[in-house]
Amino acid sequence: MHSDLRSDQLHVTVDLLIMTIRDDRLHLLLSRRVSPPYEGQWALPGSFVGMNEAAEEAAERLLKEMLPVSEAFLEQLYTFTRADRDPRGRVISVAYLVIIPFRRLAAALGEHSPFHLFEVQLDACGLNLSDGAEQRLGPADLAFDHGSIVETGIRRLRGKIDYTEIGFHFLEDPDAFALSELQTIYEAVLGNALDTSNFRRSILNRYEKTGRLEQTSQAEKHGRGRPAVLYRLKSRSC
Amino acid sequence: MHSDLRSDQLHVTVDLLIMTIRDDRLHLLLSRRVSPPYEGQWALPGSFVGMNEAAEEAAERLLKEMLPVSEAFLEQLYTFTRADRDPRGRVISVAYLVIIPFRRLAAALGEHSPFHLFEVQLDACGLNLSDGAEQRLGPADLAFDHGSIVETGIRRLRGKIDYTEIGFHFLEDPDAFALSELQTIYEAVLGNALDTSNFRRSILNRYEKTGRLEQTSQAEKHGRGRPAVLYRLKSRSC
DNA sequence: CCATTCATGGTCAATCTGACCATAATTATC
DNA sequence: GATAATTATGGTCAGATTGACCATGAATGG
């Protein structure tokens, strides 16, 4: 539909950085491009913004139509505007950070999905996307400037995780979760291990003292080891 | 030039939130609209993004042409995309936070400038823009959705000031400043007074220990009271 | 000379942080 | 069924940080 972009006008797209945590590690959803440009390469799911929708609405529409998933956490990340970022013409992209708990994402994707999850690592050596064994991608292997978008998103996520509640959106069940699940999320996002005792203390101090975090009083039975107390994060009143 | 926007396409603008500190208080630069829509109302300086420039380049061009000022601190703030935000048609705006030290800004503006500085206050009562005596504006008095843009910008500035170096960009001379000047900036941005002794300690701990902050060893002579040691912030090596 | 004004430095208690250690409650294994 | 392994939870303790104050130094204005 947009294979021929008009050369005398600007186009606006949204690109989604869909993040989840699988096997205790941070993963990113990519789709393989089936047409030029960058045919065959991996890219962020994206869509043009319609004439009567806000960018965020386009992002939500994309989530519903492509995966499909409704009710995901969505936050505007950054707008990428380099004039030469799309060989087809002048295309500006508003990138969104999307967080979906793995089970809900996996259920939506089903078996034969055009999407693929890549483990994301970002350290001093740069960005690295890996898929079990087969593939190993660097930032330059992604279509367009999507490598930069991914780096920006990971950094934003890391920067916000310990002074906002953004990490809670990775929880499978926000109404009944163990602190160890939350710790797993923090470790996956930050890329390093945390001291269990100190993590508990900081979370409980931050949220329980203010009444935001309450026990659901049920203990988790499945799994090895001592059952964990389950918590629920109450939505903020103010 | 853009008085008639095509109804079948999207347009992209940049809007600038130009902030400075005058008389120890945070101020924002607004321009009065001289044509519809919102004729006569105050608005953020803005411009359409050209076909061959990135949004940030458009922002820099606008600074050079309108004020004119070169070499200002510029940071992308947020992209506003509500479909009905501009009555002329479909216009998306990429907002930038711009920081210019007051003397440089005042020199650029000169005497008979179409721009005007408003003191910005944002507290529980909401946003308030005031101009000495005459005018007193609320967020709804600004053109378009510029009231929301201003609120977003102030919040971002406040959120970043004590864990980034963004406050240093308000300094008149980054190569020779007293800690009290920096404190004035922090107080203006945060909207409340800080303990002088504790402020010194936190700044010196954060920056001097890492070698980022060094004394220029000259003492300030002008003014009452004990002369202050002047500092310089070295650009980060990494 | 003295009051005033800033700049600078120090104290002290409370809190927070990071590195540990200890114990409780469950499952896996022999 | 005893014991080891595993996971959750709680506590300690020194060091760092923070917030509220106080004290002193170095200039200027009467």
> What is the structural class of chain A?
alpha+beta
What's the total helix number of chain A?
5
What's the count of strands of chain A?
Answer: 12
- Residue share in helix of chain A: 25-40%
Low-confidence spans of chain A? none
Proportion of beta-strand residues of chain A: 25-35%
Quaternary organisation: homodimer
Condensed summary:
The first copy, chain A, is of the alpha+beta class and 238 residues long.
Layout of secondary structure:
2 copies of one chain form a homodimer.
Chain A: E1 11-22, E2 25-32, E3 42-43, E4 46-48, H1 55-66, E5 73-80, E6 91-99, H2 102-109, E7 115-123, E8 126-131, E9 135-137, H3 146-161, E10 177-178, H4 179-190, H5 196-208, E11 213-219, E12 229-233
Parallel strand pairs in A: 1-6
Antiparallel strand pairs in A: 1-2, 1-4, 2-3, 2-7, 5-6, 7-8, 8-9, 10-12, 11-12
The structure holds a DNA duplex (30 and 30 nucleotides).
Report what the structure shows.
Two copies of one chain form a homodimer. Chain A contains five helices and twelve strands. Chain A is elongated and about 60 Å long. Chain A has 238 residues and is α+β, with helices and mostly antiparallel strands. Chain A has two domains: 11-160, Nucleoside Triphosphate Pyrophosphohydrolase (Alpha-Beta Complex); 171-233, Arc Repressor Mutant, subunit A. In chain A, strand 1 (11-22) and strand 2 form a beta hairpin. In chain A, the strands form two sheets. In chain A, strands 1, 2, 3, 4, 5, 6, 7, 8 and 9 form a nine-stranded mixed sheet that branches. Chain A has helices spanning 55-66, 102-109, 146-161, 179-190, 196-208, and strands at residues 11-22, 25-32, 42-43, 46-48, 73-80, 91-99, 115-123, 126-131, 135-137, 177-178, 213-219, 229-233. The first copy, chain A, binds a DNA duplex (30 and 30 nucleotides) through helix 5.
